[in-house]
Specification:
The protein has helices spanning 22-32, 35-52, 59-76, 91-103, 117-139, and strands at residues 9-12, 17-20. The chain is mainly alpha-helical and 140 residues long.
């Protein structure tokens, strides 16, 4: 498993539980919008998925794959309200996702732990536009 690279939401493999820092999620909601806490949770669920399939990715590449997988999820959401699914995505939500990706980025480009802002936004974009195949081609 990757190091704790997103302290705002994390996956604990021992208990198979995703945890969310509710105060941080509320602050992200207030500052960036309603898709921000969703992005935080989705990165932790992406880590859970990588753990479940025995991914051997590590470090920055693993974290960027999580960002890409969040993009896959966001890209799968309907644009118009779907009563059955209950969730939709709007252009504003994608802006909120980008802001959250930047929030979670390495402080400097030479850290190579979580990915710099450009890498995280690019990974998310690859997932939205290229789906899981795009993520696999870019990070696996």
């Amino acid at each position: 498993m990757a190091a704790n690279t997103n302290p705002l939401a994390l996956f604990c493999p021992q208990s198979a539980t995703v945890y969310l820092d509710q105060q941080a999620a509320q602050a992200a909601l207030d500052q960036y919008g309603d898709f921000s806490p969703s992005y935080l949770l989705a990165t932790a669920w992406s880590e859970a998925a990588q753990t479940a399939v025995g991914s051997t990715l590590s470090g920055e590449n693993r974290v960027l794959y999580n960002d890409c997988f969040v993009g896959v999820w966001a890209g799968s959401l309907p644009v118009e309200f779907d009563a059955e699914r209950g969730l939709t995505v709007s252009p504003g939500d994608l802006d909120e996702a980008v802001a959250t990706a930047i929030l979670l980025a390495d402080d400097t480009a030479d850290q190579d732990v979580r990915g710099d802002s450009f890498s995280k936004v690019d990974a998310f974009r690859v997932g939205v536009l290229g789906g899981i195949t795009g993520c696999d081609d870019s990070f696996a």
